[in-house]
Write a structure and sequence with these properties.
This protein is mostly helical. It folds into 2 domains: 73 residues, no CATH class; 73 residues, Factor Xa Inhibitor, CATH 4.10.410. Helix content is 35%, strand content 5%. The chain has a 3-stranded antiparallel beta sheet. A hairpin with a 5-residue loop joins β1 and β2. α2 packs antiparallel against α3. Keywords: Mitochondrion, Ribonucleoprotein, Ribosomal protein, Transit peptide. One of its GO terms (molecular function) is structural constituent of ribosome.
């Protein structure tokens, strides 16, 4: 017979073991976790405040297992996004010198004029051309300026190297690098 004082440190572990016992046939990781922590003193760990899936009623548990949302989950928890939104990350500190890095996609897709304006192609200029009219294709081939918000964002994504003045031979944008006749 085991004395009651010997079982006190295992008080919070009983809850984990009972949950693990119910889930062992379904999840082998839980059995490994229980065997690993069975010798430790887990008195400082609080039992979970939110009821687990194992403690829910069976119809609700079936809905959760098969991916259906239930009225209990809709009321308390924020919705989980269904897809991962793509982002273009900016490296603030490089590993070699600790300097900012230029996002290469910006340099490839946009052209910066020396006055600070950015030039780009219209979106969709090479997509599904078979269904677009000739006038629409001509409009899509045109170059347009980025607005102020986009220009500020693109300036943040490039380093000073790409903001310096370049003197290219036969540059078609030579007359647009400096803005003239501006009323300030």
């Amino acid at each position: 017979e085991v004395p009651a004082t010997a079982l006190r440190p295992l008080g919070s572990l009983r809850h984990v073991l009972s949950l693990a016992h119910r889930n062992v046939p379904r999840d082998p990781c839980v059995a490994q976790l229980v065997s690993r922590f069975s010798t430790f003193n887990l008195r400082h760990i609080k039992p979970p405040a939110v009821s687990t899936i194992a403690n829910l009623t069976s119809p609700l548990r079936n809905n959760l297992i098969y991916g259906h949302e239930s009225f209990v989950l809709k009321s308390g928890s924020p919705p989980i996004p269904r897809f991962q939104q793509s982002v273009r990350t900016l490296t603030y500190f490089g590993l070699r010198r600790g300097k900012r890095k230029t996002v290469k996609a910006v340099v490839k897709r946009f052209l910066r004029l020396h006055c600070g304006l950015w030039v780009r192609r219209k979106a969709g200029y090479k997509k599904k051309l078979w269904k677009k009219s000739a006038d629409r294709k001509r409009r899509l081939r045109q170059h347009v300026f980025c607005n102020r918000t986009q220009s500020k964002l693109l300036d943040k994504m490039t380093t000073d190297f790409w903001k310096r003045r370049n003197w290219y031979v036969n540059d078609p944008y030579q007359m647009y690098h400096d803005r003239t006749n501006l009323k300030v």
